[in-house]
Write a structure and sequence with these properties.
Blueprint lengths: L2 H10 L4 E6 L1 E10 L4 E2 L6 E2 L2 E10 H10 L3 E9 L2 H12 L7 E4 L6 E8 L5 E3 L3 E3 L7 H14 L5 E6 L11 H13 L4 E6 L10 E5 H10 L6 H4 L2 H16 L3 E4 L5 E5 L2 E5 L13 H14 L4 H15 L11 H17 L1
Parallel strand pairs: 1-6, 1-11, 2-8, 6-7, 11-12, 12-13, 13-14
Antiparallel strand pairs: 2-5, 3-4, 8-9, 8-10, 14-15, 15-16
Length: 352
Amino acid sequence: METKRFEKILSSFPKLKIAVLGDFFLDLYISLDRSLSELSLETNLEAFQAVNIKGQPGAAGVVTNNLGALGASTSAIAYTGDDGNGYTLRKELSRRGVNIEHLLQSTERFTPTYTKPMMAEVDGPTIELNRIDVKNRTPNPAALEKELIKRITTVIQDHDGILATGQVEDDSCSVLSQRVRAALAEVSLANPDKVFIVDSRHFAARYEHVSLKVNLSEAIRAIGDLDAQVQIHKNAGWLKTAVACQQLLWKKVEKPIFITLGSKGISGCADGKDFYHPGYQTSGPIDIVGAGDSVLAGCGISLCAGAAPEEAAYIGNLIGSITIEQIGTTGIAAPEQLLARHYEYQKQNLAT
């Protein structure tokens, strides 16, 4: 992409208002110190001792983090429970500038939470112990889903687009349930000038009339859910497999498709035409947690700024390459980092 065009798209980011719909989790990090451990008198087991607790938005919250870092105004459409984790999640989203007017609070739901105990060993490294997950295990109340649908219809009137992300395996317990998916398709059809893009870990094949951002394994799974031919994965290379998948997905939704390929970059399809950007070759350690969410944010904000799908994929690809270099956290990319990476990427491509 030419630098002038790249800079023009980036300059539009602060003018945008983007809503994020989906599963907002609280990532709750509890720092433990083994040297302070005590023996429980009740159980005779080791009692871990916390020395620090930090909560930050996860899952869909990573998308709002990235959009905010790029300059866009953001709103959350989701729910939390009426509990302490919900209080922390709402506080942390607000602190990051996210509008939580449409973040519903329900006494019938838990706040989805990933609790991550981090143990500092005596004279050793800090290791992550078994994660503790808090998820809703029963279907969403109908009244809650009805209110979520109402908020989607209202919010899109003064926002440039909706980015949606679903991580919960049982979609009856996810913000992006069957009823909400159907409503999102209807709202997309009614607002053809707005951007609607979804990152669904488990149910990409069930969406209609919206763009999709998936990784290659999710794309293959979606094709299988559509009862399409999947033997291509066994007999073809990764890029041919991605192209075959994105063509089939595009025919279903008739909206741009983006397939992330890890270190190999990103592939996509729009109007039946394929495109591909190689990955930026990073050096040193990487942390891929949240990388897909950052790519969704990059592709989505670029589409909202008027970028063509191929341009949006280029920017999403660069953002992902920046965030994976941030170890031990779900990273973000600021505009100045993105511009610097653009120049580095151009040099890297010329050298190959």
